[in-house]
Design a protein that fits this description.
single chain; 180 residues; 8 helices
Length: 180
C-alpha cells in the first residue's frame, strides 16, 4: 500500500475509533470520514461497511498485542502493558457490541480475530508456564479472557489515577487465580 493511502486508512481508523467511543456505533460514516479529513469515497474504498471498519479497528489492536508479546518482557510486565493497551479497545468493543448486528461473513471474521488474539498470547502463556508463573493449563485463550475481564472494568480509558489503581488490583487478582 502506498504511504499516502496507508496514512488515509490510519486516519480513518483513528477517527472511527474516537467517533464510535464518543458518539456510538451508529454515528454517520460521513462524520467519520470528515473527522479523518477524507471523503466518503475514500472511506468506502477502504472499508466495505461499518462492520468492516470496526473489524479493522480491532485487527489493529491485535497487531498491538503481537508487538507487546514480541518484546519478551516478563509475564507481569507484559500483562500490565496488555491491560493498559487494551483498556481503550475493551471500552470501544463494549460500546460497539451493543449496536453490532454482524452479518455471517463479519461474524466469522470477528470470531477469527478472537482466535488470532488467543494465538498471539500463546507465546506469553508458554513463557509464563515455563517459569511457573501460571498453571500448566493456561494458554493464550485464558490470558485473553483474563485481559477482557480486567479491561471490562475501565469505562473511561482516559481516567488515570483511580482507574490505574483499579486495573492493577484487578490484574493482580486475576493473575493470582492463574498461578499454580
Amino acid at each position: 500500500m502506498r504511504r499516502d493511502a496507508r496514512a488515509r486508512r490510519d486516519a480513518l481508523l483513528a477517527a472511527a475509533a474516537a467517533s464510535f467511543a464518543e458518539r456510538g456505533y451508529g454515528i454517520p460514516l460521513e462524520d467519520v470520514a470528515a473527522r479523518a479529513g477524507v471523503g466518503r469515497g475514500t472511506l468506502y474504498r477502504n472499508f466495505a461497511d461499518r462492520e468492516a471498519l470496526a473489524l479493522a479497528i480491532f485487527e489493529r489492536d491485535v497487531d498491538e498485542v503481537d508487538a507487546i508479546v514480541a518484546r519478551n518482557q516478563n509475564y507481569h510486565q507484559s500483562m500490565l502493558n496488555l491491560a493498559l493497551a487494551g483498556r481503550r479497545s475493551m471500552t470501544l468493543f463494549a460500546r460497539i457490541a451493543i449496536d453490532l448486528v454482524a452479518n455471517t461473513e463479519n461474524m466469522i471474521a470477528f470470531e477469527a480475530l478472537g482466535e488470532r488474539l488467543a494465538r498471539s498470547l500463546d507465546p506469553l502463556a508458554a513463557r509464563a508456564r515455563a517459569t511457573d508463573e501460571v498453571r500448566d493449563d493456561v494458554d493464550g485463550a485464558m490470558l485473553a479472557l483474563a485481559l477482557r475481564m480486567v479491561g471490562g472494568l475501565s469505562h473511561n480509558p482516559d481516567a488515570h489515577d483511580r482507574a490505574m489503581q483499579e486495573l492493577q488490583v484487578a490484574l493482580e487478582l486475576v493473575m493470582r487465580g492463574l498461578k499454580p
